[in-house]
Write a structure and sequence with these properties.
This protein has one domain: nmb1532 protein domain like (Four Helix Bundle (Hemerythrin (Met), subunit A)). The protein contains five helices and no strands. It is mainly alpha-helical and 168 residues long. Helix 1 packs antiparallel against helix 2. Helices cover 75% and strands 0% of the residues.
């Protein structure tokens, strides 16, 4: 299979950025988020509270962007493409809600509080579960469905750029 940066029949005039596969983009988010959470887990005992806050703020913003992309664009596309996938999509949306609650709790908790690190640990476990379910069940089903994953990826990339621009 050609890589997303190589031209393909029917895609003339599109840039490499337009050819991002939606599942690859979301998987890259999953990897990046897991990496941020793993770095936090490895360093948390050495960091001062202000460094912990900076790290968790970055995690929460990245997770918020990912959550927005999936809720606004990806899950509706899944609902259209997978009429029998309602259970998987509902479970993924519920996991997002749990992560939103955890990120809010992290934001409201002082980094030097005894409950701070365990909250970040719960978020890491929830994300791990979410990723395993999405990548193990939902992504393969969507890849087999009649969906233009590159067009969907371009939509996700455009929305991400908007989200980043509004946070500057």
């Amino acid at each position: 299979m050609p890589t997303p940066t190589h031209p393909r029949p029917g895609l003339e005039g599109r840039t490499g950025r337009d050819l991002v596969d939606a599942l690859d983009l979301l998987r890259a988010d999953h990897v990046a988020l897991a990496g941020l959470l793993q770095a936090y887990a490895l360093q948390k005992d050495r960091w001062r509270p202000d460094k912990k806050r900076l790290a968790t703020d970055a995690i929460c913003v990245a997770l918020d962007h990912h959550d927005t992309l999936e809720d606004e664009i990806f899950y509706p596309a899944c609902e259209r493409a997978l009429p029998d996938g309602a259970r998987l999509i509902a479970a993924a949306r519920a996991e997002h809600e749990i992560m939103r609650v955890l990120t809010a709790q992290i934001g409201e908790t002082e980094p030097d509080s005894a409950s701070f690190d365990p909250l970040v640990g719960k978020l890491a476990m929830q994300l791990e579960h979410h990723v395993r379910a999405e990548e193990g069940e939902l992504f393969p089903r969507l890849r087999d469905a009649d969906v233009d994953l590159h067009a969907l990826g371009a939509q996700l990339a455009r929305r991400r750029a908007e989200l980043i621009a509004t946070k500057l």
